[in-house]
Amino acid sequence: MIKHTVMSIAAFSAASMMAFSVSAADVVDGPEVSWNLSTWGKQRAFTAGVEEIAKYVDENTGGKFKIKVHYGEALSKSRENLDGIQLGAFQMAMFCSAYHPAKNPTLTGLDLPFLPFPNLEVQRDVHEAYYSQPAVVEDLAKWNAKILMSSLLPQYEFTGVGDPPLTLKDWDGMRVRALGGIGKAMTKLGAVPTTVTASETYTALERGTVEAASFPFTYAHVSYRLTDVGKWYTANLSPGANNCPVVINTSAWEELPDQYKQLIMDAKKPAYEALISAYKAADAKNFPIMEEKGLKAIMYSDEDLAAFRKAGAQPVWDEWTADMKSKGIPGEELLEVIMTTAKKSS
Q1: Contact present, 151 and 246 (Cβ < 8 Å)
Q2: Domain 14-97+127-150+244-278 belongs to what architecture?
């Protein structure tokens, strides 16, 4: 049973209302409701969207609808957030589909490498269109989950230790933290990918369990302190990005009054704006930090990158659609949604 608090609505004094940026006339009336959101790590660019949603519903209800964001895996391990949503342990959560592809096979389409996302705005449009597909909705319904929005992770790059891979051939045999489709693309270079959660990656790199780790560039490399132990980073490999949606427990959603449901949906626009702005601000802050730490930037030739994309894009996409077909999932249709939406959005 989802726990939430519903209390009688009390009148607010003029003094208390001054604490909110929304005028009294604009405050949405309703009961008092408290939700919990499970995530990992600390507050950072990745969480700017959910923080904005929490702020938006708080301000627009005069503090009657509150969403508390719990960091550091306080409520659940990152790999178990979807399970927690299914059980009703909390009302909202963030997770990455590549952490457990068998749990959410349709979502792995957004983890494919080299998808045509020239910027975060196009990526947002594609993710929104993809999440609304019947096969995806049905997939998440098995977990009593409803996708709210994407976390819009930027393109990934690697930070590593040891000898830097100055050519693509140097990746042969390297142990790398690379999830989902990015991992499949790296196997085309002879690398050995492993699935390590974000919170475990620093230790894995420090101990040499992996020789390089891919993360959204640049914010996550600094946020997870890879730059404290790494000696080099790739600056233009850009193999793709992982899909990490924000989900809501369906039972909790259905219990919300309609005006609160509408508020959450209205909050998505400023939440996406906050995400994009936060990632840009992180880049401006983090590049100087990486330079100060003396990390070597690795740049690959156009010829190398073209060869990598040829080996790691269409072949991996074809393997994915075939795998989806074997599971009874319309993989070709889902991939077409990605391509057509990206083209239209661009």
Answers
A1: yes
A2: 3-Layer(aba) Sandwich (3.40)
Instruction: Tell me how far apart the alpha carbons of residues 21 and 293 are, in angstroms, rounded to a whole number.
Output: 41
pLDDT in tens, 72-93: 999 999 999 999 999 999 999 9
Give the rounded distance of the alpha carbon of 136 from its chain centre: 16
pLDDT digits (tens, 9 = 90+) for 22-72: 555 589 999 999 999 999 999 999 999 999 999 999 999 999 999 999 999
Predicted TM-score of the model (pTM): 0.85
∠ CA 224-229-235, nearest 5°, is 75
Task: Spell out the SS3 assignment of 15-81.
Answer: HHHCCCCCCHHHCCCCCCEEEEEECCCCCCHHHHHHHHHHHHHHHHCCCCEEEEEECCCCCCCHHHH
Rounded CA-CA distance 201/99 in Å is: 13
Report the C-alpha gap between 221 and 285 in whole angstroms. Answer: 12
Query: C-alpha distances in angstroms, 173 versus 16, 191, 215, 299?
Result: 62, 5, 20, 20
Q: Domain coordinates of the chain in residue numbers? A: 14-97+127-150+244-278, 156-241+282-345
First to last CA, the chain: 44
- The answer to whether 144 and 251 are in contact (CB under 8 A) is yes
